[in-house]
Amino acid sequence: MTLFGRAELLLPPREAASQLGVAPSTLRRLATVYASVYGPDSLPWSDGGKGGGSRLWTGEAVERTRAARGLVESGRASSFELALRMLKDAPVQLPALAEAPAGDGAALADLRDEVERLRAELADLRGEVASMKALPASSEPERSQDASETAALEGRAEPEQVADGLLVQSARWLEQIIRR
Fold first, then answer.
1. How far apart are alpha carbons 34 and 58 in whole angstroms?
2. Domains (ranges, CATH) in the chain?
């Protein structure tokens, strides 16, 4: 598989399960549902589909799965399949990690941890955007602080604008907590 003209890294099931914090048996069940939503070629087989291999996971599939599980755990989706369908149109962008300077393993580990934290936060925000898009058109916002939030709640904003609005709202909330 290629992503942006480059060969995409394919993760074996054990590594994908580790990144998602699930057992391999759980990952197999998730893979079946994922393939039913995104198509049989979304998770290629290690043996090319000849019957003896295992599913290989792309970074995008891992991020979508993480986001979908977050939607289910937060109660915004009633099933993993529904959560995946909500996220189907939301693109997942994986930033490339730069080469680390030689001998700076601790800094690299810190950066990787921060990137993973930000990826999880982004996946959660995308899930929130998808759940907002799934709201009926007649739902009224409880309150709106600015025009971008109103546009997001009315479904007139782009996903990036919604994510930005959610980040601003989260920052305001954190500032209020810090001031207490």
1. 12
2. 1-94 (1.10.1660), 140-180 (no CATH)
